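User: Fold this; C-alpha coordinates only.

Assistant: Input:
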Amino acid sequence: MWPDVLELRKFYETRLGRIVRRTIRRKLRELWPTVKGRQMIALGYPTPFLRYYREEAAGLVALMPAEQGALSWSGTPPNIVVLTEETQLPLADRSIDFALVVHALEFTANPRPMIRELWRVLAEGGRLIVVVPNRLSIWARLETTPFGQGHPYSISQVTQLLNENSFTPLGAHHALYCPPSHSRFFLSMASAWERIGHRWFPHLSGVLIVEASKQVYAGSLVEEMSWSKKLRLAKKLAQPIKN
Protein backbone atom coordinates (compact mmCIF):
# COMPACT_ATOMS: atom_id res chain seq x y z
CA MET A 1 0.00 0.00 0.00
CA TRP A 2 1.35 3.39 -1.02
CA PRO A 3 1.69 6.11 1.64
CA ASP A 4 -0.04 9.43 1.13
CA VAL A 5 2.17 12.05 -0.45
CA LEU A 6 1.19 14.56 2.25
CA GLU A 7 2.54 12.23 4.95
CA LEU A 8 5.81 11.88 3.07
CA ARG A 9 6.18 15.63 2.80
CA LYS A 10 5.34 16.03 6.48
CA PHE A 11 8.08 13.57 7.45
CA TYR A 12 10.74 15.38 5.43
CA GLU A 13 9.78 18.66 7.08
CA THR A 14 10.78 17.28 10.50
CA ARG A 15 14.31 17.50 11.86
CA LEU A 16 14.72 13.73 11.48
CA GLY A 17 13.47 13.95 7.90
CA ARG A 18 16.00 16.66 7.09
CA ILE A 19 18.81 14.48 8.43
CA VAL A 20 17.56 11.55 6.34
CA ARG A 21 17.47 13.78 3.27
CA ARG A 22 21.03 15.03 3.76
CA THR A 23 22.41 11.57 4.52
CA ILE A 24 20.91 9.81 1.51
CA ARG A 25 21.54 12.75 -0.80
CA ARG A 26 25.24 12.71 0.14
CA LYS A 27 25.55 9.04 -0.76
CA LEU A 28 23.71 9.52 -4.05
CA ARG A 29 26.08 12.36 -4.91
CA GLU A 30 29.05 10.07 -4.34
CA LEU A 31 27.65 7.56 -6.83
CA TRP A 32 26.49 10.11 -9.39
CA PRO A 33 28.74 13.17 -8.93
CA THR A 34 27.23 14.83 -12.01
CA VAL A 35 24.43 14.35 -14.54
CA LYS A 36 25.32 17.48 -16.51
CA GLY A 37 23.70 17.56 -19.91
CA ARG A 38 21.92 14.21 -19.40
CA GLN A 39 18.28 13.15 -19.15
CA MET A 40 17.14 11.98 -15.69
CA ILE A 41 13.96 10.75 -14.05
CA ALA A 42 13.18 10.02 -10.41
CA LEU A 43 10.30 7.72 -9.45
CA GLY A 44 8.38 7.52 -6.17
CA TYR A 45 8.78 10.44 -3.79
CA PRO A 46 12.24 11.62 -4.85
CA THR A 47 12.14 15.41 -4.64
CA PRO A 48 13.99 15.67 -1.26
CA PHE A 49 17.06 14.17 -2.98
CA LEU A 50 17.19 16.09 -6.26
CA ARG A 51 18.59 19.43 -5.13
CA TYR A 52 21.82 19.23 -7.15
CA TYR A 53 20.62 17.20 -10.10
CA ARG A 54 17.86 19.61 -11.07
CA GLU A 55 20.51 22.28 -11.62
CA GLU A 56 22.65 20.04 -13.83
CA ALA A 57 20.45 17.73 -15.87
CA ALA A 58 19.37 18.69 -19.37
CA GLY A 59 15.98 17.33 -18.36
CA LEU A 60 14.71 16.08 -15.02
CA VAL A 61 11.22 14.78 -14.27
CA ALA A 62 9.88 13.59 -10.89
CA LEU A 63 7.38 10.78 -11.50
CA MET A 64 4.95 10.23 -8.63
CA PRO A 65 2.66 7.16 -8.60
CA ALA A 66 -1.06 7.79 -8.87
CA GLU A 67 -1.89 5.76 -5.74
CA GLN A 68 0.47 7.94 -3.72
CA GLY A 69 -0.49 11.30 -5.19
CA ALA A 70 1.71 14.16 -6.32
CA LEU A 71 2.82 17.53 -5.00
CA SER A 72 4.24 20.46 -6.90
CA TRP A 73 7.98 21.00 -6.77
CA SER A 74 8.80 24.59 -5.98
CA GLY A 75 11.88 26.51 -6.97
CA THR A 76 13.86 27.00 -10.15
CA PRO A 77 14.21 25.59 -12.76
CA PRO A 78 10.46 25.22 -13.28
CA ASN A 79 8.54 22.52 -11.47
CA ILE A 80 8.29 19.25 -13.43
CA VAL A 81 6.22 16.64 -11.58
CA VAL A 82 4.15 14.02 -13.39
CA LEU A 83 1.43 11.84 -11.88
CA THR A 84 1.70 8.40 -13.45
CA GLU A 85 1.36 4.64 -13.07
CA GLU A 86 4.70 3.19 -12.03
CA THR A 87 4.34 0.43 -14.66
CA GLN A 88 3.33 2.78 -17.50
CA LEU A 89 5.73 5.70 -17.63
CA PRO A 90 4.87 8.45 -20.14
CA LEU A 91 8.31 8.31 -21.75
CA ALA A 92 9.75 7.10 -25.02
CA ASP A 93 11.90 3.99 -25.28
CA ARG A 94 15.62 4.54 -24.53
CA SER A 95 15.10 8.24 -23.77
CA ILE A 96 16.64 8.45 -20.25
CA ASP A 97 20.24 8.28 -19.03
CA PHE A 98 19.73 8.15 -15.25
CA ALA A 99 16.82 6.82 -13.17
CA LEU A 100 16.49 7.16 -9.39
CA VAL A 101 13.89 5.11 -7.50
CA VAL A 102 13.11 6.03 -3.89
CA HIS A 103 9.97 5.38 -1.82
CA ALA A 104 8.66 3.21 -4.65
CA LEU A 105 9.95 -0.37 -4.84
CA GLU A 106 8.89 -1.19 -1.27
CA PHE A 107 5.33 0.02 -1.91
CA THR A 108 4.46 -1.21 -5.40
CA ALA A 109 2.44 -4.38 -5.86
CA ASN A 110 4.18 -4.85 -9.22
CA PRO A 111 7.95 -4.73 -8.62
CA ARG A 112 8.95 -6.69 -11.73
CA PRO A 113 6.77 -4.75 -14.20
CA MET A 114 8.04 -1.53 -12.63
CA ILE A 115 11.68 -2.52 -13.05
CA ARG A 116 11.02 -3.67 -16.62
CA GLU A 117 9.39 -0.34 -17.39
CA LEU A 118 12.49 1.47 -16.12
CA TRP A 119 14.57 -0.80 -18.36
CA ARG A 120 12.42 0.22 -21.33
CA VAL A 121 12.92 3.97 -20.90
CA LEU A 122 16.64 3.81 -20.08
CA ALA A 123 19.12 4.25 -22.91
CA GLU A 124 21.75 1.60 -23.59
CA GLY A 125 24.15 1.64 -20.66
CA GLY A 126 21.73 3.80 -18.66
CA ARG A 127 22.18 3.87 -14.89
CA LEU A 128 19.61 3.03 -12.22
CA ILE A 129 19.74 3.60 -8.46
CA VAL A 130 17.20 1.93 -6.17
CA VAL A 131 16.85 3.09 -2.56
CA VAL A 132 14.95 0.70 -0.28
CA PRO A 133 14.55 0.03 3.46
CA ASN A 134 17.05 -2.50 4.78
CA ARG A 135 15.16 -5.46 6.22
CA LEU A 136 17.88 -5.96 8.87
CA SER A 137 17.59 -2.46 10.31
CA ILE A 138 15.50 -1.01 13.10
CA TRP A 139 14.11 1.50 10.58
CA ALA A 140 12.23 -1.31 8.85
CA ARG A 141 10.59 -2.36 12.13
CA LEU A 142 9.13 0.97 13.23
CA GLU A 143 6.19 2.42 11.32
CA THR A 144 6.85 5.96 12.53
CA THR A 145 8.82 6.77 9.35
CA PRO A 146 8.20 5.93 5.66
CA PHE A 147 11.03 3.38 5.83
CA GLY A 148 9.04 1.28 8.30
CA GLN A 149 6.16 0.88 5.87
CA GLY A 150 5.92 -1.34 2.82
CA HIS A 151 8.19 -4.28 2.03
CA PRO A 152 11.85 -4.01 3.16
CA TYR A 153 14.58 -5.73 1.16
CA SER A 154 17.91 -7.44 1.57
CA ILE A 155 20.76 -6.79 -0.84
CA SER A 156 20.38 -10.25 -2.36
CA GLN A 157 16.67 -9.67 -2.99
CA VAL A 158 17.29 -6.37 -4.78
CA THR A 159 20.16 -7.70 -6.88
CA GLN A 160 18.17 -10.79 -7.84
CA LEU A 161 15.23 -8.63 -8.91
CA LEU A 162 17.54 -6.49 -11.03
CA ASN A 163 19.31 -9.49 -12.56
CA GLU A 164 16.02 -11.11 -13.47
CA ASN A 165 14.95 -7.96 -15.32
CA SER A 166 18.01 -7.33 -17.47
CA PHE A 167 20.03 -5.08 -15.18
CA THR A 168 23.62 -5.60 -14.07
CA PRO A 169 24.12 -4.61 -10.40
CA LEU A 170 27.21 -2.43 -10.03
CA GLY A 171 27.34 -2.11 -6.26
CA ALA A 172 25.34 -2.06 -3.06
CA HIS A 173 25.82 0.68 -0.49
CA HIS A 174 24.56 1.45 3.00
CA ALA A 175 23.35 4.68 4.58
CA LEU A 176 21.36 5.97 7.54
CA TYR A 177 22.63 4.65 10.86
CA CYS A 178 21.03 7.27 13.07
CA PRO A 179 18.19 5.70 15.11
CA PRO A 180 14.68 6.56 13.77
CA SER A 181 14.01 8.83 16.72
CA HIS A 182 13.02 12.49 16.99
CA SER A 183 15.10 12.80 20.16
CA ARG A 184 17.31 15.88 20.04
CA PHE A 185 20.11 13.89 21.66
CA PHE A 186 20.19 11.25 18.92
CA LEU A 187 19.72 13.77 16.14
CA SER A 188 22.59 15.92 17.38
CA MET A 189 24.88 12.90 16.94
CA ALA A 190 23.72 12.00 13.41
CA SER A 191 27.17 12.42 11.85
CA ALA A 192 28.79 10.31 14.56
CA TRP A 193 26.18 7.59 14.07
CA GLU A 194 27.07 7.42 10.38
CA ARG A 195 30.78 7.03 11.08
CA ILE A 196 30.25 4.41 13.79
CA GLY A 197 27.72 2.49 11.74
CA HIS A 198 29.85 2.33 8.60
CA ARG A 199 32.80 1.07 10.60
CA TRP A 200 31.25 -1.35 13.07
CA PHE A 201 27.72 -2.23 11.88
CA PRO A 202 27.79 -1.81 8.09
CA HIS A 203 24.90 -4.19 7.38
CA LEU A 204 22.47 -2.56 9.82
CA SER A 205 21.93 0.67 7.91
CA GLY A 206 18.44 2.08 7.54
CA VAL A 207 18.50 1.95 3.76
CA LEU A 208 20.18 0.06 0.96
CA ILE A 209 21.30 1.96 -2.14
CA VAL A 210 21.84 -0.35 -5.12
CA GLU A 211 23.20 0.89 -8.43
CA ALA A 212 22.80 -1.01 -11.70
CA SER A 213 23.25 -0.56 -15.43
CA LYS A 214 20.95 -1.60 -18.23
CA GLN A 215 21.83 -4.83 -20.02
CA VAL A 216 21.29 -4.95 -23.77
CA TYR A 217 21.22 -8.30 -25.53
CA ALA A 218 21.58 -9.00 -29.25
CA GLY A 219 17.96 -10.01 -29.46
CA SER A 220 17.49 -8.68 -32.97
CA LEU A 221 20.31 -10.87 -34.29
CA VAL A 222 18.84 -13.95 -32.64
CA GLU A 223 15.47 -13.10 -34.12
CA GLU A 224 16.92 -12.68 -37.63
CA MET A 225 18.70 -16.04 -37.42
CA SER A 226 15.51 -17.67 -36.23
CA TRP A 227 13.46 -16.25 -39.10
CA SER A 228 16.10 -17.21 -41.67
CA LYS A 229 16.00 -20.79 -40.44
CA LYS A 230 12.23 -20.77 -40.64
CA LEU A 231 12.40 -19.42 -44.21
CA ARG A 232 14.81 -22.13 -45.31
CA LEU A 233 12.61 -24.75 -43.70
CA ALA A 234 9.52 -23.33 -45.40
CA LYS A 235 11.27 -23.42 -48.82
CA LYS A 236 12.35 -26.96 -48.23
CA LEU A 237 8.84 -28.06 -47.33
CA ALA A 238 7.43 -26.26 -50.35
CA GLN A 239 9.59 -28.22 -52.81
CA PRO A 240 7.65 -30.87 -54.77
CA ILE A 241 8.19 -34.46 -53.77
CA LYS A 242 10.18 -36.38 -56.38
CA ASN A 243 8.98 -39.88 -57.28
